[in-house]
What we know:
Layout: H1 5-28, E1 32-40, E2 51-56, E3 62-66, E4 72-79, E5 82-89, E6 92-101, E7 108-109, E8 112-113, H2 114-130, H3 135-139, H4 143-178, H5 182-195, H6 200-214, H7 219-239, H8 244-256, H9 260-273, H10 278-291, H11 295-308, H12 313-323, E9 328-329, E10 335-336, H13 339-351, H14 358-367
Parallel strand pairs: 1-7, 1-8
Antiparallel strand pairs: 1-4, 2-3, 2-5, 5-6, 9-10
Amino acid sequence: MDNSFPYRKTFQRISxxxxxxxxxxxxxxxxxxxxxxxxxxxxxKGLKDAIIKIERLDIKGNYKTKTDKKGHYxxxxxxxxxxxxxxxxxxxxxxxxxxxxxxxxxxxxxxFNLAEMKAKAAAMQKMAESGQMSKxxxxxxxxxxxxxxxxxxxxxxxxxxxxxxxxxxxxxGREAMNAKQWDQAIEQLKKASELDANQHVVWANLAxxxxxxxxxxxxxxxxxxxxxxxxxFQKAIALKPDDAAYLNNYGLMLARAKKVPEAQExxxxxxxxxxxxxxxxxxxxxxxxxxxxxxxxxxxxFKSAITADPSHAExxxxxxxxxxxxxxxSADGKVQAPPEMRGALEKYLELRPDGxxxxxxxxxxxTIGGQISTSYQNPTAPKKGxxxxxx
Length: 391
């Protein structure tokens, strides 16, 4: 009888168990990889504390590390897979490398160079501006990037052509306006507005062209031109509501179209929007009201112009003339004028002793019994008429 048999059986059992253990050990050992690289700053030196963000693309997984003082980084223990590597500097993602497949053994190298990136960005910008692609850049572009560039280039060419047509039409319209060729100006500026309806300056000039044309017509034809001009001004103001000059010019057009309350509203808005030039806008409002015989409103407007700009000589004079509507005669036949009238006339003569209305101002002072200072210079011949509006 072989007494060694039980021992052989026990040895075989131990051998099987050890083999199973070794198999389990091999199966339980994960296969890992690593990513390593350098980050260089715009000065070409290693960049410290750049954040390297590692995002796994095949299944969910996010990892992070940062560069040392020499700009070097490494992240080991990564599962084999496909990754997106992003370099973050001072809170901003500056570059990304997609579809990085890691490997067993040596780390997968991924480097970032800010100087090269800056040069590439400048080259791309130049390329976008010129529409020309260099061979070096073309070789480094993916098919998707090339397709995107070609699309952008076509869109840019179309935009440049549109911009040229727009500028040509606008400039032709302006030249026609300067020559008072209103029909041609309207035609060109309408063309510009059709090319780009979001250009407030085009609408404002078109409105002025309609106003110029209306000034050469009368009756219904004039009214129709004013209506088109007012519509153009409304579009300009909708695009640029903070432009007081548009409101002023719109108000003057409304006044010429005999829409006085609306004109008053727009000119008041202009004055409120642009306080440094409020005197000019209130003066224009006063001129509109005085020319249409609304003297009470004119008095208030000219007074507001003087308050805003006491040195506005014409506002002083026309304030006095508007106040002349309040002159009465006493029972004994003496002229009784509002007390502010004399002050306004004297202020005008102080500001414009040789001004256009100096003679008329002196006559009015004499009429209401005011004293004429001998310090005033000899006036030019007075010119009668309504107040001129300021643009």
